[in-house]
Amino acid sequence: MIVFDGVTKRYPGGTVAVDNLSLVAPNGKITVLVGPSGCGKTTSLRMVNRMIRPTSGTITLDGRDTARMKESDLRRGMGYVIQHAGLFPHRTVLENIGTVPRLLGWDRRRTDARAHELMEQVGLDEVFASRYPSQLSGGQQQRVGVARALAADPPVLLMDEPFSAVDPVVREQLQDEFLRLQDELGKTILFVTHDIDEAIKLGDQIAVLRVGGVLAQLADPAYLLNHPVDDFVADFVGRDRGYRALSFQPTPRLPLRPERTLLIGETTQGVAQDWALVVDDANHPLGWVEPRRVTGEIRSEMLHRGGTVARASGPLRGALDAALSSPSRRGVIVDDSGSLVGTVQAHEVLNAIEEAARPEVADPTNPGAPAR
Amino acid sequence: MINDVASWLLDPAHWTGPDGVPARTWEHIWYSGVSLLIASLIAVPAGLLIGHTGRGRVVAVNLAGAARAVPSLGLLFIMVLFLGPRLSGDAASLWPSLIVLIVLAIPPILSGAYAGVEGVDPAARDAARGMGMTGWEVLSRVEVPCALPLIFSGLRSAALQVVATATIAAIVGIGGLGRLLIDGQAIRDFPQMVSGALLVAVLALLVDLALAGVQRYAVSPGLTGRTTTRGGGRAATDADGTTDADGIPAPGAVFAGEKELAVRREAGKTEPRHNS
Ligand SMILES: Nc1ncnc2c1ncn2[C@@H]1O[C@H](COP(=O)(O)OP(=O)(O)O)[C@@H](O)[C@H]1O
Ligand SMILES: [Mg+2]
């Protein structure tokens, strides 16, 4: 548990970057610090591992005052991930990941074994072990950065905009994997981002900071979207917040329709619909075709791939988006293994939304309490 | 003329004895090596310290610039006048020569070292500190290895200048290949002078080659881009699942949810995928 108690940081120039911040980051949870640029997120994060020293106030880690701990011990006991990964260019992926274990005096064999294990956990193929950072894409570098932070299995992770320098598709993928990893590992995580969507997706609780380093609101995502405390927070969480709130409503039983499917290489003879769904051998959706326009066999390049697919067990937002983005207006729903289970139309999703209860929110008299 | 030089060089008599080519070359290497070593012992730590702390940069730049502007010959005579009476025998000529060479070698080595450290990716340095490296560990494990290419280029440029300039030791009466030039001039033996100049040039080239060899061995391939020819070619630009190695979108990749599932499957290892 990380506890900020009345923490203030005033830089030599007089800038107050963080103003009397009190905050608890509970064990095993992801606490996100979010806010506009310059609101003191990075400063707050870096005060935890004392890369920056607070001007006043204390930060304790499981009850121990971090100011009284030896800096190198404190930092070796916390994973640290930053925006541009900050990998060591002269070291291979494996060596990068093994940095902290080596600092802690592990022998080579144990370090390498651990590094290989981590590469697997963060989804990096073995072939990357002997590569250098310059040979990796941004997304891969971030994976190495996360693996490196986890190497000595620290209970705490500090992450400063770790996914914001990669393109949106890769970012989403990294976020998903990060959540999966956290499900397994249950670390105490302090995560900084300026992106409210990311905060909502990843946070167990979210601390919204305003410029000047003042905590505006601390709440869980659903509560934050439904009950922003003031105009600043309301504005910051954005105009789409009703739509975003759907992210927290698991899909109820949607009235799924069976869909006539075709395989690549089949002909569309006898298919009367305007749009038909093409799947692969494993019944994974590939894309839509317009039978009228297809003469002969269906080929891969004929597919309209524009639509998203949603998991039946996922939140309502995905199902609605699948319906809205589908060229046939029928949203593709799959099971957890990616196999087609049926399609659903937007009005059916809306009905489901209407019928579902509002998302549960925390006690409004105690906005700090996480609802989940 | 070329024939004269060739026959001078091929004459076995010029390759033996205390003023033969091997002995002179050895002296030359010795002066150059000692000067470079002493210059490195001063300039490398100073440069690393300046780069690491970010302090003293202005002083260093100005000192190095001033040192560059010092005329070697002038300094040599001043040193002989100043040190000559205080030292005896060969040392009276040797040390002035070495000092000139050291002064010559310091600026490139110093700027190479501090520019190398200063140029280290700030994110890498930040990460190193954040992982709990002490200042010394950051310097020795991250900054120095990353600075090596520039440290070497400073060293090599110093070596070229020192080997070329070590000929001046002969002016104050001690050895080295410069003797071929000075003695040759005294007796108007032009083939010998040209041979001497040629040998100095060849030596400089060989020293540079040797240092390049050491550099190749010492500098991580991660910093030089030599990785492309090792270990089976360049990595795919993006193996995050959005693109196959050949750049063709993977089937169904635009189906965002499908991709996400592919990632989950991959993570669950039910379907091995190869990223390269
Ligand atoms: N080293 C520093 N010296 C002086 N001011 C700083 C320093 N670092 C950050 N600041 C100022 O403190 C404020 C908060 O910065 P920062 O914590 O980096 O914000 P964020 O990460 O939220 O963008 C900004 O106004 C910034 O200009
Ligand atoms: Mg920041």
UniProtKB/TrEMBL annotation, chain A:
Record EC number: 7.6.2.9
Source species of the chain? Pedococcus cremeus
Its EC top class is translocase
Pfam families (UniProt xref):
ABC_tran
Q: Give start-end of the signal peptide.
A: none
Query: Which SUPFAM superfamilies does the protein's record reference?
Result: CBS-domain pair, P-loop containing nucleoside triphosphate hydrolases
Q: What is the name of the protein in this document? A: ABC-type quaternary amine transporter
Q: Keyword check for Oxidoreductase, yes or no.
A: no
For molecular function, the Gene Ontology terms on record are:
ABC-type quaternary ammonium compound transporting activity; ATP binding; ATP hydrolysis activity
Q: Which InterPro entries match?
A: AAA+_ATPase, ABC_transporter-like_ATP-bd, ABC_transporter-like_CS, CBS_dom_sf, P-loop_NTPase
Give the taxonomic lineage as stored in the record: Bacteria, Bacillati, Actinomycetota, Actinomycetes, Micrococcales
Q: Which family does it belong to?
A: Belongs to the ABC transporter superfamily.
Automatic annotation (TrEMBL), chain B:
Q: Where is the composition biased (Low complexity)?
A: 224-247
Q: Which GO terms describe its biological process?
A: glycine betaine transport; transmembrane transport
Localization recorded for this chain is: Cell membrane; Membrane
Q: Does the keyword Membrane apply?
A: yes
- Annotated ABC transmembrane type-1 domain ranges read 25-211
> Which branch of life, at top level?
Bacteria
One cellular component (GO) term of this entry: plasma membrane
Protein keywords: Membrane, Transmembrane, Transmembrane helix, Transport
Listed CDD domains? TM_PBP2
Q: Where is this region: Disordered?
A: 223-252
List the InterPro entries hit by this protein, alphabetically.
ABC_transp_perm/SBD, MetI-like, MetI-like_sf
Membrane topology of this protein: Multi-pass membrane protein
- PROSITE patterns under this entry? ABC_TM1
- Pfam families found in the cross-reference section: BPD_transp_1 (PF00528)
TM region(s), chain numbering? 29-51, 58-82, 94-117, 161-182, 194-214
Family, similarity comment: Belongs to the binding-protein-dependent transport system permease family.
What PANTHER family does the record point to?
A: GLYCINE BETAINE/L-PROLINE TRANSPORT SYSTEM PERMEASE PROTEIN PROW, POSSIBLE OSMOPROTECTANT (GLYCINE BETAINE_CARNITINE_CHOLINE_L-PROLINE) TRANSPORT INTEGRAL MEMBRANE PROTEIN ABC TRANSPORTER PROZ
Under which name does UniProt file this protein? Osmoprotectant transport system permease protein
Organism classification, top ranks?
Answer: Bacteria, Bacillati, Actinomycetota, Actinomycetes, Micrococcales
